[in-house]
Amino acid sequence: MFALLTDFDNAASQSTQTLGARLAGARAIRPGLSATWELEHARQGDHGANPQRFSVNYDQASIGLKTAQTQAALVVERLEGDGVHAFQTPLGSLHGFQGRSDVIGATPGVGVRDVFLRGAHSFRTKVPVKLSGELHQFNTTVGDDRLGREVDIVIAAPVAKGWSLEAGLARFDSAARLYPDATRAWLSLEFKL
Description:
10 strands
């Protein structure tokens, strides 16, 4: 269970109260193979000095399979909108959520439903390499209009103790005037303490 209450003096319309719960688990199907699942729900509404009155939901459900080296899951994520207000994450980055192209940076007032397949495989090589990918279909929660599709591919590998290198490519094909088509590529070096 979680609660996030924000009360911004200089941005009162961004003040929200978010209450929710998350459950996740796995069950062995046979040795070396597990079924995985996640369920999450949150409700967000106005808080503090926010002059607007609203209440919207966030829902996420996934089911998947996992081995020591490979995992795959079908995920449905819904950030509800009411036509004006939508579930937002004011203190978090959406990079890696709603696709890695970052085209959908903030949830539009019509909301977003993201249905996607996620997969990853770790290769047992001299330098362990992880390849992952996602296929997304985005629709609005108001009117169920298509927003677009996205394909994401990421490859990552350790390069030294504590250091890893990641390269990625994301392609967003818009189905609505709300967002442009976009292709994004990145290369990052990460250090973990």
